[in-house]
Design brief:
five-stranded mixed beta sheet, 2 helices, globular
Length: 122
């Protein structure tokens, strides 16, 4: 959990050899710059920084992990749930992570961010 930040967070794991990752990377950077102070959207190259992916179930790239402004795993509405995977703690059945596998467009990312608690952005 990412508590205390008060901002929705999207972490995108990818690599430079991955075509969908290369398509999505500029959008991630653009949104992070445009939404500074309103959301955190980061791209992490798993080839260059594999240690940053430790603890995350990254089996394919691109994979995004999504956290609400409250620091909880994002629970998408049915409308936005396509490609989403919910991970639960095997012992407690608590929802601990939400991931999306594959490419997300700027529009899709903005829709998800709004549902995750993004405020005051157009």
């Amino acid at each position: 959990e990412y508590t205390g930040l008060g901002l929705p967070i999207i972490i995108d794991f990818g690599a430079d050899y991955c075509e969908p990752c290369k398509v999505m990377k500029p959008t991630i950077h653009k949104l992070n710059n445009e939404l500074e102070g309103k959301a955190i959207i980061k791209y992490i190259d798993v080839e260059k920084y594999p240690e940053l992916a430790e603890g995350y179930p990254v089996s394919v790239i691109p994979t995004q992990f999504l956290f609400t402004a409250e620091g909880k795993p994002y629970m998408p509405s049915e409308e936005l749930s396509s490609g989403m995977i919910a991970y639960s703690n095997k012992e407690t059945d608590e929802h601990v992570l939400t991931a999306h596998h594959g490419l997300l467009t700027e529009s899709q990312l903005l829709n998800i961010l709004h549902e995750m608690g993004l405020e005051n952005a157009e």
